[in-house]
């Protein structure tokens, strides 16, 4: 599938985007990245990385809270949101890790803390296997560190859909007629606010975003990363909800046993998008993770 479909425009589709006034486009390695920054330029840097099918809006509740003490930098991954210029190779896990590392070099940023959600956790852990990315702490939220449920079907299906140049346009057209966003969000087990629902609905109406999400699913291979979790040197905290219907909590528990300097934290109920529904509670756990050394204790 071509990634040449027009991406959403910050001046048009993005005019009501959360923290639009903090958005800019940054060129790095052939990709034009959508970047948002909040907080003091002199503060410690916190990098936020969303999951598959999402964008910076996923952290709309957490960003202003973290900006009180961090220079918060949130990005749209290749093929997602307002980021444009991604190639198929950029939608693989190693490709995304390389591309995001390249963006950090252009921005001259060395994050003190990196927070990822779902597939964004895998991107950060993959990056941490490089000498060029050594954040003071990585925090993973409902980390997608094994194939999402049904992947034996979804991955081959995604490959077929991604190969058809009409697929993304058909899906985005259907999203304009039916409440596709509502259906997908109900599957996450999280009841997010109206602003969040509107953002997801807008993204689903964009063929470029749908194409990027399908391409990510089609090219997502986690086995090489899982096989190297024992080589991760950065401190890691994995936080997971008890009732996530998309990525079971045991995935984070299992990964925490493989990462040398890792602590697992049970968030309790909240679904796959608990970072959107309970940002204040999450911030307390992030603060605790940064202040306390990670441990090998996994319940």
Would you give an account of this structure?
It is a single chain. The chain has 299 residues and is of the alpha/beta class. The chain has a single domain, classed as Alpha/Beta hydrolase fold, catalytic domain (Rossmann fold, 3-Layer(aba) Sandwich). It is built from 12 helices and 8 strands. The protein has helices at 62-66, 93-107, 119-128, 151-163, 167-175, 180-186, 194-204, 207-218, 223-226, 249-258, 274-277, 279-291, and strands at 23-28, 31-38, 44-49, 70-75, 113-117, 137-141, 236-241, 262-268. An 8-stranded mixed β-sheet has the order 1-2-4-3-5-6-7-8, with helices on both faces. Strand 1 (23-28) and strand 2 (31-38) form a beta hairpin. Helix 2 packs across helix 3 (119-128), helix 5 packs across helix 8 and helix 6 packs across helix 7 (194-204). The N and C termini lie far apart (44 Å). Residues 150-154 and 156-164 have low confidence and may be disordered.
Summarize the structure.
With 299 residues, this protein is an alpha/beta fold. It has helices at residues 62-66, 93-107, 119-128, 151-163, 167-175, 180-186, 194-204, 207-218, 223-226, 249-258, 274-277, 279-291, and strands spanning 23-28, 31-38, 44-49, 70-75, 113-117, 137-141, 236-241, 262-268. The chain has an 8-stranded mixed β-sheet with strand order 1-2-4-3-5-6-7-8, sandwiched between helices.
């Amino acid at each position: 599938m071509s990634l040449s479909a027009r991406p959403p425009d910050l001046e048009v589709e993005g005019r009501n985007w959360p923290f639009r006034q903090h958005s800019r486009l940054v060129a790095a390695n052939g990709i034009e990245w959508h970047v948002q920054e909040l907080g003091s330029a002199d503060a410690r840097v916190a990098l936020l990385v969303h999951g598959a099918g999402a964008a910076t809006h996923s952290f709309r509740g957490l960003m202003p809270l973290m900006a009180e003490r961090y220079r918060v930098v949130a990005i749209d991954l290749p093929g997602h949101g307002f980021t444009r210029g991604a190639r198929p190779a950029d939608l693989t896990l190693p490709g995304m890790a390389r591309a995001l590392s390249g963006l950090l070099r252009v921005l001259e940023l060395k994050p003190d803390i990196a927070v990822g959600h779902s597939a964004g956790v895998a991107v950060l852990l993959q990056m941490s296997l490089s000498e060029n990315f050594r954040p003071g702490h990585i925090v993973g939220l409902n980390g997608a560190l094994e194939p999402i449920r049904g992947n034996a079907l979804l991955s081959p299906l995604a490959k077929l859909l991604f190969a058809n140049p009409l697929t993304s346009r058909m899906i985005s057209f259907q999203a304009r007629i039916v409440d596709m966003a509502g259906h997908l969000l109900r599957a996450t087990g999280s009841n997010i606010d109206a602003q969040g629902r509107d953002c997801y609905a807008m993204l689903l109406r964009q063929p470029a975003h749908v194409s990027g999400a399908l391409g990510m699913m089609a090219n997502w291979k986690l086995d090489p990363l899982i096989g190297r979790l024992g080589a991760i040197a950065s401190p890691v905290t994995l936080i997971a909800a008890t009732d996530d219907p998309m990525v079971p909590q045991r995935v984070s528990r299992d990964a925490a046993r493989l990462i040398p300097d890792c602590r697992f934290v049970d968030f309790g109920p909240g679904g796959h998008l608990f970072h959107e529904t309970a940002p204040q509670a999450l911030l307390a756990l992030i603060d605790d993770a940064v202040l306390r050394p990670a441990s090998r204790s996994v319940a």
